[in-house]
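Quick one, T. Sequence first:
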Amino acid sequence: MKLSEKDLLADQGDDLSFADFPDAAAIQSNTLKIDYVFEPGKEHDGATIDVPVSLLAQLTQADIDWSVPGIIREKCVALLKGLPKAQRKNFIPVNAFVEELLPYLSTGSIDLLDSFIAAVYDLRKFRIDRALLETIELRPHLKIKVRVLDNSGKQLAIDSSLAALKQAFCKGEEANVRGSDSQQSLGHPLEMSGLVTMPEIELSPSVEVGEGNIKLLRYPSLVDAGASVSVKLFADEELAREAHAGGVLKLAMLNSVQQRNMLRKHCDRFVKQNALKLPVSGADLVEQCVEACYAYALTNTHTIRDRQSFERAVVEAKAQVVGLGDRLISLLERIVVIRLTLKKRLSALSSAPEYLLDDVNSQLDRLFTPRFIVETGFERLAEFPRYLNAIELRLAKAPFMGPRDKGDTELLANYLVQLEKLKNDSAAGLSMSSAPRLEEIRWMLEEFRVSAFAQSLKTKIPVSPTRIEKALSAIKGGSRSITY
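Structure tokens:
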């Protein structure tokens, strides 16, 4: 068979162009080389992006997914064909549906799976579970690979899973959130250690730094280093935000010694008087109380990035923390008494259904974690008496729990499994962007318990199985907010 140049260049009807398979990707202000291999069936078949290890932490799944437009259509077809038959039948004929779907995809800020789920829902009002899509095995050429390179250009690793690569190479970023008081040379003029007050220079929300030909976006942040505070540059914006809040809090405590000591003295007295009732060790509880009061007094810590705003915030915190400590101690006195009463009640309920005892004990364990005061925060902690009273009302029905109690318990258990999986998925991706929304759902479940088991106490927010499922789906589908 003989082919002319005209035959080779003829339009094959797939509307693809060289632009759909670029030689490089513009990602995070950098031009990253893309290599293509044509070896069908082999694991390295398809596109591979070369990424310097110094840039890896900034890379997002969206950066990867949209870098080779030419495979988007075929990948969407493969995802739909990989669905169970009961779901797949909603999109037949698949190829025609994908043509209809493509204009609805939101490229850029969210990854392909989240965009795909949202577009399908827009067109058919059918929600596909992201976890299900992630189990679909795609052919190698539909999975863009990332090749991690060291500073000399030598390959360190290659994988189609960005999360796995970050897990291997970016773990140190998370460890820096609490930091250490290191005196080593930190490599950038903004980075410093041993601070006991706010730096004179304002900390920009982000800075662009260069490493050779690579441009890196970094996020300056204060970091709690124990006896002092450091300034570090983070690659992950959410990690920087969390670290900065802790750094501002530590600086405020270092600059209000009189108020801090008075607050600690009040908290220490409470701990000693209630030692036998407390769910956690006394010494740690004192520091948690102090930290919780300062955290509540210091609002919008992410905006405190210069000395003037810091000093203004410290003045406001000084005026509040001792009074907040008195309020917190009063609240904790109520909480520990109700908790102790519940524990005694549980041990005496020999005739209650086993599922009920297991569920209530598990609920109490989740409420009273070793660092429950700082993890819960002042505002959430104020709801604990209502949550505990709801348990009391529920236990008062034992052993005759009614027809719905066990069903609602099983429903809650299912939601907790889904929530835990989402938390694990978020941690595996080394991103904290979904953490606040996951926390919102965690407290939605506590409100649902009040609604299901103690309606007379009323809920703080509207809550129902439909709202909880919608909130869970919102995170799976990439939404940035939860609607109650």
